[in-house]
Records
---
Amino acid sequence: MGVLRAEPARLGAATRAVGTAWRTYDWQLSVYALMLMTFGLVMAYSNSVHDGSSPLAMGTTFTRGVMWSGIAVVVFAAATAFDYKWLKTFAWPLYGLNLGLLVLSLAIGTGVGNSSRWITIPIIGMQFQFSELAKILMIIVLARFLSAREARLDSLSTILGAGLLMAPVVVLVMLQPDLGTALVLFAIVAGMLFMSGASIRWLAVLAAAAVAFVPVAWNFILHDYQKARLLSFLDPASDPQGSGYHLLQSQIAVGAGGLLGKGLTNGTQNQLDFLPVQTTDFVFAILAEELGFVGALVVFALFAALLWRVLASAWRSRDPFGTLFGAGLASLILFQLLVNVGMVIGIMPITGIPLPFITHGGASLITLALGLGILQSVNLRQTRAEW
Amino acid sequence: MNDSLLPNETVRSRRPMRFLAFGVAIAVVVGALTTRLVFLQIQQAPRFEALAQANMTASVSVPSTRGIVYDRSGHALVQNIPTWSVKIRPADLPYPQRDAVVARLADLLGMKSTDINARIEANPGSRFDLVRIKSDVDESTARLIAEEGLKLPGVEVTAESRRDYIYGPLFSQVIGYTGAIGAPQLADLEAKGYLPDDPIGQAGVESSYETALRGVYGQQQVERDATGRVIRVLQTTSVPQPGQSLVLSIDVKEQQYAQQALEWGLKTAGVQRGVFAVMNPQTGEILALVSLPTYDANDFARGITDAQMRAYLSNKDTPFLDHAIAEQYPPGSTYKLVTGTGALQDKKLTPTTEVLSKPFVQIGPDKYWEWNRAGWGPLTITEGFGRSSDTFFYQVSAMLGIERLAYWAKEFGFGALTGIDLPGEVAGLVPSNQWKQDTFGQAIFPGETLQAGIGQGFDVSTPLQVLNAYAALANGGKLYQPQVVREIKAADGTVVRAFTPHLIRKLPVSAANLVTMRLAARRVATIRHTYNVVDMPIIVMGKTGTAEYGVKDAQGRLPYHNWYVGFVSKSGDVRKPDSQLAFVSFVYGADTVGNAATEIAKYYLQLHYGIKKDYRIPSLLVRGNFYGD
């Protein structure tokens, strides 16, 4: 009993021929992810042109993006090779590590204004946002927790247990403050509970409770700037130079893109700086401006295909941990897609949530690579016949 | 141990319905986002395209050349000279760097950081508008700042032209100056195409003829970035049209004579404030207009410093005010023109009616004294006016009554703006029963009527009103609107607006009564009330005034202003209304033994007519008092 409860690598699986193992590897999953990452690099290129310097020079958004993409591929490969079953074994230490990294972020992190989100990693000198990593670590912890409670999924205690696991992480993230990541964490818990088979009735009750909690959060938890951003979503024209500025300008960018877009590096909203933070939270606005409706649809299609492959992996997994891990990853990607693009096109409030693969930022990309790598590891290490 | 891997349990871990639900959720999310994109990118694309265009293109103004001001003989009084100015666009000045940038700029410009900050804060426009920090920066400094551009974000050096007032203070009260637009004016002016850092006429004809002088700014379509920086010019929509030029009715030489005479008189009398104005009574054209102390319009053109501004503002003799039109003083005995003409025309007097002058006129317990405290016995209007007998005019005022007196004053243009084409004119005051009832809630007392008849008490008027009233006497009863601008010319020299006299009204006074009053005005000279004016080789008619004001001194005497207003006969025949030259001379708080204003006028007339002999009597300008002790 105890720590080494898991007994990785049943002999049969471990001795299978390599060729057989690769048949269960999901190539489509990797290809869709790579294509989305490429879109991100293309947009980074366009933004680097706008900065005036050669896009291929060191330190531009584009070259940094290429570097992070390289690291992401390595992380993805390593995670695929790594036997995910060890994650079940080390779920609780990982949970501790997660809390530790978030505390560290609060202690020494830097960020815009008074926030403390990024930690500069020594030696390579690149900034990293550990709250991104926290998303994957939480998926692992929750998958471990829920898969061990197979028999009691209907009970309220499962839901409350998951909530209690999540609570310290959410608190640490909100202290940074990072409302966006906190919301993503909520989405992950909700998605995983739903997919695990938790009681729909209790989930509904808790959802109702969450709605009731909104006024409390509004008055006591949210910062003024967060409230202003949420409000300006309702009426962007009320303060076009202030908090509504991003919303208005991003919708102008998207709308001006039209069917076919203005062509890469030709977006005036991008190149003339009318839309700030065009490399990060609002990158989709620039994508839609320069690549148009068609480009945006291609991106949506890639996301839909990727999500389908993630769910398929989850479905195929004989291990409930693998199923739940896939569900968590799908929840993460779907929620971030909805909220980020929704924000850019004016149907969601501004919350500062990155668009998976496309928003420029190392932590987000590494986190996704790690998640997809683990999922491929799950794919490789299951004995179920292919679905 | 690993029960979870047993087939019969793993089946439970997958919920097909929930996978299906998740699949539906994906479809709904992608569907919703796509729907919105269809709306934005397909349906509304033209609208957003237009908004993006509007974002990046802007219409910017191309300044026009401001019109020139010439004197009557065509000498340029103003020129536009190229200059450099330093401006800041607050939006481009990052807050953390602001202190450092301001400090460096202060160093380069020789200004105080606090002054620069004050200017940025006082910016009437938005953060994207340029704020003028310093005008008329010398070229080497401008170049230095331009070279340090990268270290001075938000700082811009622009080449522009500024006004150079060639004659300095000589014409400042007439021409005025241009200055920055104040925040309250900005909203109105922006609608008319003004930019927040545009110069605008702030005084003189620069202000009253702003529209003509400014011309019409051109327009260019430019591409700009989010901070408003112009990337390139797309097209020129309209070419700027240069401003029109003004030709003043004033000649430099006449203005210099007037200034020379007034400066001499004030200096000799030891006072600061005075006015000398000259008009052609036949047309209302102003031929000279000097108000002292004055200011140098070039101080504004170069960018006035706080120290200069403080010095001007702390001067109790208000150098920014044109004392000829913007301040009102008791007209004193000059007002006897109104009383006398009114009494003749209302048939209270005939030219031969005699009224007894005496030491004083008594009303109840109050005594209203003759100025010499003796009187001269019975006097006709000519003699009464000539000797400026107070007791004569007290009695005539009482015959007229306050209402008729007010009527005649208003006919002569008192109590109303003359309508001169300069800003800042005030109307003066003509007391009447109605006015006093409205202001103090009681009727005019009889004693106040007496005082009103000699230009004291409530009467106040501007020197220009006094001049204009006598010009009407000189020209046979026509009250003209005074004008300083004779013509407006286009940039190519063609006359856009030629001179035409503007008649305010023809006075309802018979020619015979006006002749009587001109004879009376001539009598002032011949009786030697104005000492040796009569000895000059020109026929001068006019009236002096000694107007008390303010607070009594220890001996119960009031300080007083000196007036002398008059005109010169062209033909030498006093009866003819042919004068080409009327003048008013005013010395504020003169307190001299004799009439300082008369001495100034004599000096001006000598200069104007080239009279070699000097008739001035400087001993009259000794400070003492006219009461004779």
---
Amino acid sequence: MNTTQKAAAVVFEKVSKAFGSVVAVNEVSLTVEPGTLVTLLGPSGCGKTTTLRLIAGLEMPTAGKIFIAGRDVSLLPATDRDVSMVFQSYALFPHMTVLENVSYGLRVSGMKKKQAGEKAEAVLAQVNMPGYGARLPSELSGGQQQRVAVARALVLEPQVLLFDEPLSNLDAKLRRQVRQDIRELQQNLGLTTVYVTHDQAEALAVSDSIIVMRNAEIAQKGSPRDLYEKPEDIFVADFIGDANVVKAEIVRIDGEQAIVRVGVIEIPLPHRGLTPGEVDLAIRPESVQLSNGAAGDALAGEVLKATYLGGHIEYTVATPVGELFVIDPRVHMMFSPGGTVGVSFAERGVTLVHP
Amino acid sequence: MTGILRSTAAAWVPRGLILFLVAFVIFGPLANMLLWAFTEVWYFPAKLPIEWGFAFWERVFRPQGNAMESLINSVLIALTTVVIAVSVSIPAGYALGRRRVPWRGIILVAFLLPQAFPSVAVHINVARIFYSMGLAGTFFGVVLVHTMQGLVFSVWISTAAFATIDHELEEAARNLGASALRTFFTVTLPLALPGIMASGIFVFLLSLDEFTGTFFVGVPDITTLPLLLFTASMEGNYQIASITSLILLVPSVAFMLIIERFLKADVLAKIGN
């Protein structure tokens, strides 16, 4: 099965959706390139699931236009859209066998029972569930149910595949495996995929591109690396990974660079349109470097807490600019609580952020 | 070891006693009914029937006795009532359980109203209206009275059955390309079916046992088993009453067996969910 030539772009043009007086999606514009996996990431109630349902046609926009493969589908009902969705609850029909579930979409489109069954079997084999056709969904484990739900969506060879928090009902160990499976499948089939999650680690792991949503609007979009290393504002910095947000001051602008003073040290950073004065600086925990004693151009810090976690050590360090949370991969040496350390910053993982 | 044995015995004696009492309360009257059904002569102070026999069975099933006619009437009325009640409660339950219906609560309570007032008062008035409409003493008139009483069960249970179906299942069907009608018949209705079947059983049993409404609307043209039972009891003929009760069990059990064949036990067990 090769669906590459079917993969379609999804485009939102200032799409809004209101439920009564509650605005769930507010003038969102976005583009999902054909064959890519885009994640909608955000806290609950940010509008990410509504956005997904707008693509599926399960909600109709109150304003704006939605295009799939260049065709305006804004008011096209779900039944007539070539979009398949894997629901959070999987939504497998409990009164049908696995095979009946998977071939349901083919049957309603008029395919003969035998042919539909054969095709469903083939897709079940593809998601590693061969021979499960005669079972009822209630006889399967959560992970197996999820694969059946994926098979049911894939069998229609949709232009766009949608996932609504697909891992939320799986136990932690299975999640890593399943998200790899989903990513692999998506890449092998070259499917345009939109994926909703509130888990930033999941988003970073599976996505070509991430759209962070907040309060019905897009906070930032970009590649996982962009979002992690160059978060636009405090919200994104804090939502994706851990971030220490400290007050700093732009001393002067020098071309593309801003010279930023943090305590006693000055570091050059891209200015991102900010002007001299007080600013917020987001620092990733692994970008804080600790050294013995307060030497030269380092901040003087005092170790408050040190936790050995096997793969790395977590510190809480008090500095003149506030408490910093630090992740240090050097597990062979450990700074003891109460000790004095020098604190400096790595080149990557330190960014000016908009408030 | 003996200590354990003694303590288990001590625990089982009160349990056994309670079980016996419960069994006695449930099966005592039934046993009494069974005894009466095969009694020829039984009077105080004898503890058990003095003479046993089948004489009264012969009387009940005698061609000029109207037991068989009443039985057929009862079953036909009950089946028709079930068909009408279920065909009303499928659309009503779907609308009330899955759609936003204005006055939903009031509509649901309205079905309860006939049960909320003393049933004699309700049925006397129903009888008066039916007389003026020519429905009194007709098969259809009795069916209508039974349906009125049955609807509260069938509509309420169907509403609950439809309401508990996960919306995502219907959305999944639509997402897979099924039309609204197809979604209803392939997903929604099959999932509500156990509840609807259960409501059908309730309505059937209710109609089979119904007395007051049949008495006021049906008599003397339509006789059902409960009426026969009533007449026999009033005449002090416990044998006839007991035999009629036993006959009344036959359609109930048969109906439940039929339903059970269509519905696997695990489906029935999901009714509560």
